[in-house]
């Protein structure tokens, strides 16, 4: 799921990550199109991709209209309801008879886009992430990082981390590697942890530079390769998704969904006495109706 204000490059990043047009821009640019919505919408789309020889069924959920209305304090509720609805569908399927072929449409990862112009988290960002962090794996992303100098970017990352700690916002924690893992993988994992929140430059435009094809952006002073780690965390973000895809699913199932399931069972447990009482009253009413019909029948026979 991708969440953030219009114009932060949500669609461009998704298309860049998977190097295909997952969300057609049709007749309007994405930013202009989102401005037409008076309220937030939830738009899932599913595709099949292959990464490192592994076929994956991927659902991308866009949220056009988020943060665009004058009063956007309740924007997170639509997102929260969608996440809970997916938990509900999985819970019902898991409770059914046919549990072998359960379709898992739960939200395993949420990219939250933060404007580079804000130099930190806005009140809307804080409110939304506080409402969602116990429901989904949040990965914060600084959008359009090319608007910042290196020093400004370092300061912004520090500001965001401090604000998250101050407001007790929990984001996805990249797990440590096992002791027997390859040293190169361990080093790569340390780098992934150190660069949160990810500062991203993304593009779907392909250029030729030094004899090879790259995806990048052209500026008056030159060309930026979005996979160049000196300018963007794009490659690190993609590596994180590939390396920790299974962990994202596992954390969703064992933590976020399990919390939902326990709450559901507790509510069911508390509602049980009330249901029993209603059932007893319903049975008593049926007995009285049967008795009344019997008495009316006897009176009719006597007459």
From TrEMBL:
Presence of keyword Hydrolase: no
Protein name, entry field: Septin-type G domain-containing protein
Cited PROSITE patterns: G_SEPTIN
Chief location of this protein within or outside the cell: other
Entries under PANTHER family matching the protein: SEPTIN
Cell compartment(s), UniProt: Cleavage furrow
A Gene Ontology biological process term: cell division
InterPro entries, alphabetized: G_SEPTIN_dom, P-loop_NTPase, Septin
Molecular-function GO terms, alphabetical: GTP binding
Keyword check for Transmembrane: no
Keywords carried by this UniProt record: Cell cycle, Cell division, Coiled coil, GTP-binding, Nucleotide-binding
Species of origin: Rotaria magnacalcarata
GO cellular component: cleavage furrow; cytoskeleton
Protein family: Belongs to the TRAFAC class TrmE-Era-EngA-EngB-Septin-like GTPase superfamily. Septin GTPase family.
Highest taxon of the lineage: Eukaryota
Residue ranges of coiled coil: none
Residue ranges annotated for the Septin-type G domain, each copy included: 1-267
